[in-house]
Each structure stands twice: as structure tokens, then as C-alpha cells.
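Supplementary Note 2. Why include the ligand at all?

Several targets in our set were suspected to adopt different conformations when bound, so apo predictions alone were not considered sufficient. For every target with a known small-molecule partner we therefore ran a joint prediction. The input for FE2/S2 (inorganic) cluster is given below.
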Amino acid sequence: MQLQINNKTHEVDADGDTPLLWVIRDNLGMTGTKYGCGLAQCGACSVLVDGEIVRSCVTPLDSVIGRSVTTIEAIETDPVGKAVVAAWVNHQVPQCGYCQSGQVMAATALLKQTPNPTEDDIAAAMVNLCRCGTYNFIKTAVNEVAGRKEASL
Amino acid sequence: MKKFLLTLIAIIVIAGGGLFWFVTHKPGSPFDGETASAAPADLVHRGEMVARQADCVACHSTPDSKPFSGGLEMGTPLGSIFATNISPDKQTGIGNYTLADFDRAVRHGVTPDGKRLYPAMPYPSYVKMTDDDIRALYAFMMNGVQPQNVPNKPSGIEWPMNMRWPLALWNAVFVPSGTYAAKPQQDEQWNRGAYLVQAAGHCGACHTPRSVTMNEKALDEGGTDFLAGALLDGWYAPSLRQDHNTGLARWSEDDIFAFLKNGRNKHAVVFGSMAEAYNNSTQFMTDDDLKAISHYLKSLPGDPARDGQPWAYVAATSATGNAGKPGAQTYAAKCGFCHGTDGRGKNEWIPPLAGAASSLISHSESQVNVTLNGSARVVTADIPDAYRMPSFREQLSDRQIADVISYVRSSWGNHGGPVTPEDVKALREHTDPASSNPIVLQMR
Ligand code: FES
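The joint prediction is reproduced in C-alpha cell form.
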């Protein structure tokens, strides 16, 4: 099966129902995308498919054939993604870091679709779980990319 | 006068005696008088296939018990009853049953001592099984199954409702007599499908609505209620007829075949009780038999009056979908990653909610139940599926579940109707989350 990931074509040998996450991590060795729950509940495995956020643990391989997948490894090749990563560094968002590649993907997808999200838009889109509780930093960083300054905490 | 009284008493005695005889007699079996003979291996093997078709393990085993040692608890309005040990143990199982005894129990619901079984045992369907299948099934149960010394649990039904003899009268009225009779005007495949659906497969036990007297309203294609959909144990078993919305009209024969063989197709994935029926029964049937079942089901006409306005997909009007409706946010955060923001699922791996029978039937039980409790792993040829529906009972309140299901049932052209928090609460109290372990009940 041929997959378009990070603007490269990869030939992978896997069944159509294999979760995209398994292929990204195990077949292709790109371990920046994390496995949290495997049940679409946490968002650690978030990647972009044609610019939209998906949870790769519940994305069957045959549903992304002919579509363009972006993982955290290549997020900075996207101008919005680059700005998001910069804001993440600027605000030192991560604590343990495990969920953060998923958080960056979710923020990038949101800001690509809605460059000036309201607080409600942010709350609705940023639903990935973070067990360190970095939610406030995440919100501040997203606001910064949207061009809004928040009083820092 | 005296003569009149004597006549009356005589009539009562004869009638009473007749009734006594009727409710305790053992029906005849074509195998009466046959002596036991060694069962050849191929007969045992054929019987194993019949046991899978009839899904005997579904009730007579539990995930924690040895095969066929009984124990499944079945709630009835009168109290719980427990499926019995049908392993060939001579003390606690059916080890002493002759073939004729076995036949009477399976096809007529009568034990060797003349006691009537509760029709939780689907003998009103099994009565249609052929002599050959009964003989094969007996050979398997006696020779292929290990004896298990496990005493039966007493039923929780109290006197006088625990008297079994009135069931003989119920049987006389509601149970058809005789094995399946092939319809000469139909082809062989149709007849094979009809036989499997009506007899061993006992599909109607869940999918056919019941009357107040608890009998299935129809036992074959002669009745329009046959397999027309019914609520049982917190799950709505949908119509298997050619109903556009709530039945199989949009499914091809190949789709039905794939559903029974692989547990999934582009319209749906097995869930609820059907996941168990798939794991333990349909996946083991031969391709020819599954094709016959699919062929037969496609011949059952639908009923537009019952089924309502035919569903057609309606795309969400704005880029943000149907945002703003209550439940939309919960859908986006909890459901949309798998079932799609467009409600269309992911190929045959994750089922669509748009146009699903459960989104279009007024009974919301299946959707509420699967949201609260998730669904069993779908296990095909010993391999558990990659995706499963998790339980949301700990994550979402009654109100959130009601809102999100109402959202699903009113999006993408769905018109199943809203759900209230009370509906969710009622099911929450009476149901348990599905196990996340893959469970296929073993027979040997
Ligand atoms: S690992 Fe995919 S959502 Fe948690």
C-alpha cells in the first residue's frame, strides 16, 4: 500500500484495517506520534490528514490512501505549524511532554481552519487530554498564535 | 338427576385425567426405541457445525465456565432462570439421555421425566430441525463435549409460577409441529436459508416481536411480523426484512453475507447481542450456508407504513457541521474521531451513524446501551478487531448522553427522534459495561 506521509511516498505492507498509528510508529519508525489509549479518547496520537485533525489510533490505513498525512516530525514545514511550535517553546507549554505532539497537531489544525479562534473555539477544539494539566499554557500559546496577548499566569 | 351428576363427574374425571396426561406426557420421537451406537467421527464433526448454527454455547456456557456446563442467568419478569448443564456428565448433565430423550428436549422442550422446559430454550424454533441434524447434534454433545460435573442452579421463580405443566398448554397453542417443510416453489438455496433462519439459527428469538403471551408473532415468512424487529434485554434487534430505514433493504446479499462472515460491512458492525451471536455462531457457518441465509432474508418484503419516510444522506450545511445543537460538542470530542464528523464511519471498520438502522428506529435502546456500555470485541478467526466501541458510562452524564444521541438521531438525514436523560438513566441502572476482553465461547 502506498502512503503519503510528510510529503514522502512510503510503501507499506499492512492490512487495510491496521491503525495508521501502528504503521507510523512500528513500520516507519516515526515515534513522535504517541500511543496513549488506542480508543480515540486521549488525542496523543493526533496527526493531520489533508490538514484535518484525526486520531491515528482509530484511523484505518485504507481510509488514508491517496490522502496527505502530516505528523509532528514535519509540522514545522507548515507555516502555521511552525508558529505553533514557536509559541509552545516560548510559553514552555510541555511538562512531561507525552501528549504534546498531539496538542501541537490539534492547535495547528484549529489555527489553519480558524486563524482567529474565539475562546469557545479553542475550548471546543483543544480536547486532547493532558495529565500534567498544561491546559492553561496551551490556551495561552494558541492565543498568541492567534495574535492575542494574554496576561501571563 | 343422579344420573346427570354421575355423568358430569365422569366427564370431569375424564377431562381432568386427559389434561393430566396431556401436560405430563412425553411426545413421541422418531428415535424412540433406538439403541445407542458408536458415533462416527464425521457425524460428530457435522454435529459440531449444527451446535454452532444453533449457538448452544451462548446460553449453556459462560465466559467463566467449562463448555456446556450451564450457568447463564436469564432474567424474566418472574425471577431469574439459569441455563442448565448439557455436557454429557451422567450425574449433573445429560449423560444418561438417549437420542430420543435428547430429541424431546431440543425439539419439544420436554425432559426425560416429562417436565416442560421454559421456552427461553428456543424449542419453538428447534422443532423445525431435521432428524439428521438432531442425530448429528446428539453425536457431538455426547462424544465431542467433555462431561462437567456442575450441578444446575435452582431457578428464582417461586410457586405457583414455577409450575411447569401449564407450558404444555402454551406449547399446544404456540409451538408449530413438525420439521421444516421445503417450499417447492422456491429454489434449494432459499429453502436452505429459510431452514437455518427459522430452525437452528432461531433468528426470530430476538428479531421477531412477541405477543403478550410471549410467543413470537410469526415463525416463518407467512407472517409480516416475522423478523420485523423487536426489543429484548436492552437491545433493539432490528428488522431483517426489506425495510429501507430499519431493515436490510439497502444491503445487498453480499453485504449480509459479509456481516455474518466478518462481523462487518459498510453499513454496520455487529454490536450488542449480535456481537455475541457473531463471535460464537455465525462466523463458524459455511460460506454456502451464510449465502443461503442472505438469499432468504432478501426475499422478506418490507413495510413502508411501519418503516416511514426513506432515509437519504443530508450533508451538514456549514463547515463546522451541525455545531450549536446540544450534543454537537460532545459528538465532536467523543464520537466524531471514529464515526466521522460527517457521520459516515470509516470504510467497513468503523460503522456509520448516518443512515444506521439504530439512528432511524424510534427505539433508542441500542444506541443508549452501546454508548453507556460499549460493545464486545468482535473476534474473527481468533483475531480481535482493531477498533472497538468503549463504554462512556463513567465519562458522560445522562444529560450528555441524551443530548449526543439526540444529535446523532437528528443529523445527516437521520430521523430516529430524541432521547431523554430519563431514557438513559433507566438503562444505566439495568445494564453493565461490556468486557474489553475478546470472548469467544469454546465448545471443546
Ligand atoms: S492513542 Fe489515539 S486517542 Fe489516545
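DSSP finds 18 helices and six strands in chain B. Residues 2-24 of chain B form the longest helix (23 residues). Comparable summaries for the other entries are listed in the accompanying table.
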